[in-house]
Amino acid sequence: MILQHYPFELLPLPYHYDALEPYIDMETMYFHHDKHLGSYVNRLNELLEPYPHLHNWSLERLILENRTLPEDIQEDVLKNAGGVYNHQLYFSGMSPSVTELKGKLKDALLLDFGTWEEFYKTFVEMAMKIFGSGYLWLAADDKGKLVLVPLPNQATPLSIGLTPILNLDVWEHAYYLKHQNLRADYINDWFHVINWAEAGRRYQNALLGNFLQNSILP
Ligand code: MN
Q: How far is the CA of 1 from the centre of ligand 1 (A)?
């Protein structure tokens, strides 16, 4: 298992820019991946460049052990490592292929939310309520229980001891070009392109305590 470390790279999308059409458009995907994620990658590398002892630190370690970093870069590293980590999870959490919610993740989702409809309704309500920039996260605790957690900006569930399973980016750059102010339409469209196979893999890792494998693309 090789974790990513400095110099971080802009990993290519695991599908073409237009592959999620008509739900997420090509232009949004291009700007979101190449420009938004790209600048988090560049900024993170700039911040770490003067600190060789941090050059073998993984994204997860930069986030989890953030408080031990030199104070002048601590906050900016957290924001930018979060920006890279969260976007990688977001992009690999979508797929142009139809995937199925099944297995242990499906069992847990039904156990923790009652029905699919209840899960969907709660998810949409919580994603609509996020004020300003952030993500809605489906995450698992150390017992495998699933929770929905809204987090601001580039905060990650790792920082609060949860394993990320899926994340919906509700920063306006994620949908404004196509959906403008209609976040509800974007949320509905995102549900059509969720990569349940990847979510299932991440949940398995959560159950095994292997959360470090979740940022590694399969
Ligand atoms: Mn984004």
A: 27
